[in-house]
Write a structure and sequence with these properties.
Helices cover 52% and strands 6% of the residues. It has 143 residues and is mostly helical. Strands 1-2 form a two-stranded parallel sheet. β1 (21-24), α2 and β2 (50-53) form a beta-alpha-beta unit.
Length: 143
């Protein structure tokens, strides 16, 4: 849809009816700059587990800012700085592992996932960018 920018939209039904969000970030090849778009932060805002296929070491970058990832539950080696083909193969293996789990098995993870999801949401909501944007929006509404 070239007439609308859907970057700020959140499809609640989609997030509420899926276990995990697989984020394909804008860039996947090594570069000197890691780029995180709304696609990554939408998952965090929705308090949903995620797999991010972005520049190598994207997860390491998120952890630097206090976010937690899900290596306790599945292999995150797809995020390492190896060839793109190796990263894709590892990503596929990770997805196959998760999809091999029954709904009951996935539900067993929820008590351990919940604190991570809440932690990440709180980190996002306390970030200067979000705080500044929320403050500006509140000030605009109060005018």
């Amino acid at each position: 849809d070239q007439d609308n920018n859907w970057a700020t939209e959140l499809n609640e039904d989609l997030h509420n009816n899926t276990f995990i969000n697989v984020v394909i970030e804008t860039h996947q090849f090594p570069s000197s700059e890691l780029f995180l778009s709304e696609k990554t932060f939408r998952s965090i805002y929705a308090a949903q587990p995620f797999i991010i296929f972005g520049n190598p070491e994207t997860l390491k970058y998120l952890k630097k800012y206090g976010y937690k990832t899900f290596s306790k539950f599945w292999d995150e080696s797809y995020d390492e700085d190896v060839s793109i083909q190796e990263r894709i193969d590892r990503l596929i293996s990770t997805l196959e592992y998760i999809t091999s789990k029954s709904l009951d098995e996935l539900n067993e993870w929820l008590p351990e996932l919940q604190p991570i999801l809440e932690h990440n949401f709180n980190i996002l909501m306390s970030s200067k960018t979000v705080y500044k944007r929320n403050k500006e929006l509140t000030e605009w509404i109060e005018r």
